[in-house]
Design brief:
This protein is mostly helical and 308 residues long. It is 61% helix and 5% strand.
Length: 308
């Protein structure tokens, strides 16, 4: 059984979540007073639980994907079955999304309820070795419980944005409205807190992408296959991007590469994905041996088996 590394990024993620919850509870105090902080905490937990429990249904529906059989896509089944067995995990459900935009994602609340989806575009663009690299990356998102992480981050960030709008529309407590300095501070916070929560959410997402690249390369034993796939995907997305519609923007953080052209909504500075060039450099460093892990420390050279 192949296991992923233990990343110090996990501690960083916990710290980032702490900041998100601190912003949320501070908003609760400003709007409803300290006595009602628990209301905002419960709202956050409820939205997180809903998004996490239904993450597979939400993402699959947004991409209009359909389940596929082994007869339809034997290579996809063969690769996922091999990698799942190697990781000691159950076989996930497989889907294909009817779009020429090349991409893939995995979702589901745990390995027993996981789903892996490829678009028509990525199945046409990549050869089998590159597809294996991509599917290894996606499976590690499930095994690393990244769906829970992204669900929590998305839910809390969404609540902060909603509460900020309430604050801007006069939803602050009476004592705060009678204090000019408090009024100025709350207006500033209402404007800056959603931006801060977005930046924190992006930091969490980018951290998890680096982890999945590294762990997926260890699972497949072929980091250069994923590097080659990312190169093709960079050009493929520019040639056939997804339209920057809300349903695609909301699921874009799950995909292996940002599905939008540079400069469009969800791309560039506020992309949920780190630069592909940097990801490729890290993977090539892994292939060279004695690579630097995503936490900044020098990781040992793994004894990779030959790719199948």
């Amino acid at each position: 059984m192949v296991k992923g590394h233990r990343h110090f990024n996990g501690l960083k993620t916990i710290a980032l979540f702490g900041v998100l919850w601190a912003i949320l509870l501070t908003f609760g105090s400003l709007i409803a007073g300290a006595r009602y902080l628990w209301v905002f905490a419960l709202i956050g937990l409820a939205m997180t639980a809903y998004g996490y429990w239904n993450s597979d249904k939400i993402a699959i529906r947004a991409m209009r994907a359909r389940p596929v059989t082994e007869v339809e896509h034997p290579a996809m089944y063969r690769i996922v079955r091999e990698l799942s067995t190697r990781a000691g995990q159950p076989m996930p459900r497989l889907f294909v999304a009817p779009t020429n935009a090349p991409n893939a994602f995995a979702t589901g609340r745990n390995p027993k309820h996981a789903a892996v989806c490829c678009t028509y575009g990525i199945l046409e663009l990549l050869d089998e070795r590159e597809l294996r690299g991509v599917l290894g990356h996606e499976l590690m998102h499930v095994y690393n419980r990244d769906i829970l992480t992204s669900s929590v981050a998305s839910a809390v960030a969404g609540i902060i944005t909603s509460v900020a709008q309430m604050l801007m529309w006069g939803g602050m407590s009476r004592d705060s409205r009678n204090n000019p300095l408090a009024m100025i501070g709350m207006i500033a916070m209402a404007l800056l807190a959603p931006l801060a929560s977005t930046i924190i959410q992006l930091a969490i997402s980018r951290t998890r992408e680096y982890d999945a690249d590294e762990d997926g390369a260890l699972l497949t034993g072929d980091p250069l296959a994923l590097a080659s796939a990312l190169r093709k995907l960079e050009g493929g997305v520019e040639a056939a991007p997804l339209p920057p519609e809300r349903e695609f923007v909301n699921t874009s953080h799950m995909m292996i590469a940002s599905p939008f052209r540079r400069g469009e909504r969800g791309a560039g500075l506020f992309s949920t994905h780190p630069p592909i060039e940097e990801r490729i450099v890290r993977l090539e460093r892994m292939a060279g041996g004695g690579y630097t892990g995503v936490d900044g420390g020098v990781a040992p050279t793994p004894n990779w088996p030959a790719p199948q």
